[in-house]
Amino acid sequence: MEAEASAPADAAQSPEIAESIAADTPEDVVTSIVLPAYNEVGNLRPLVEEIVETVESHDMAAYRPVEILIVDDGSTDGTAETIRELTDEFDAIAGVFLRRNFGQSAALCAGFDTASGEYVVPMDADGQNNPADVPMLLDRLEDGYDCVSGWRKDRDDPITKTIPSGIQTYLARFTGPDIHDFGCTLKAYRREAVDELNLRGEGHRYIPAKLYDRGYKITEEPVDHRPRTHGSTKYGAGRLVRGFVDLAFNIFWNKYSMRPMHLMGGLGLFLLAIGGVIGSHAVFMKYVLGDALLPHLPRLILAVALIIFGFQLLMFGIMAEMLTKIHYKGEVPYRIQSVERGGDVAESED
Question: What is the DSSP letter of 230?
């Protein structure tokens, strides 16, 4: 009801707003703000009003024109209709409508692929991220960083979310970057960093890890975190399990994606060695000391199992190395920041 009552007033001022923040063409866009939305009909309009107010402020002068991309991830509560109303009212807003609910990572990926700006700022559509933090994150990019991650230092969420998230964040540090909050959607990226991303599963949580692995500079800044005022959280036990599985994959991928044989081959050789020692001891006891084999049979079975598992890991490591060569075919194993000759700086992008 509030959204309907405020619509006429917003529509009346939209031409002035559109003129001040919207771009004439996609090529003119400086900053793209991406909102993945799933059943957020009660939060979208108030959030968009806050974003517009922030974008019109003096702090955002250097980052205009702006586009606001709202990605509808197969909502069923009228979110799509609200997005269409907002696109009619504000020239700076564009709606991206997915055919079904693909998940937050896919929705963010769709927004990133559609975004035209030199800077890209994703944020949650539930209103818990504060748009007033956006200029500060963009300013930090100007200090030479490629990704500025929001840190919900004083998080306003129930304990059922904060404890699992804290555990995931602690473990996520093994992926590389030393930041406090991997799960905060509010971040600021340079365009070239966003172009490196290929999000799958719950991969949006580990974007800093993916960029760190590619050599991009990452920092974090404390941001405001507010309570949800409409709708319900989409965070559940199933999502927690998927997040941990994705975390395990990202730890493996960042450390061993280009050298899987180092992990699987090393483990395989270790198991082969342990199995060989146990088996040799059983054989020694049987044929040198004359002990009966039957009392040592469990150890002998263990030795055979370890040798088989070790051999399998070696074979998997070899196959993984072959697949790695195919996966990275045509891609260089490095990222060049710049090439300097005689004072000239040539920026290189792979």
Answer: S
**CA separation for the pair 90, 321 (Å, rounded):** 51
CATH topology of domain 2-256: Spore Coat Polysaccharide Biosynthesis Protein SpsA; Chain A (3.90.550)
Contact 83, 37 (CB under 8 A): yes
Asked whether the beta carbons of 106 and 86 are under 8 A apart, the reply is no
Token duo for residue 136: 């500060």
Cβ–Cβ < 8 Å for 127, 228: yes
Per residue in 41-99, pLDDT (tens digit) is 999 999 999 999 999 999 999 999 999 999 999 999 899 999 999 999 999 999 999 99
Q: C-alpha 263: how far from its chain's center? A: 25
Residue indicated by tokens 């996520």:
172
Burial (0-12, 13-18, 19+ Cβ within 10 Å), 222: middle
Distance CA 297, CA 294 (A): 5
Closest CA to 50 of 143, 126, 138: 126
Spans of all domains in the chain? 2-256, 260-327
**Helix, strand, or coil (residue 345):** strand
The DSSP letter of residue 158 is -
More confident residue, 144 or 18: 144
Close Cβ partners of 54 (under 8 Å, ≥ 6 residues apart): 60, 131, 132, 134, 135
CA distances from 203 to 145, 157, 249 (A): 21, 21, 10
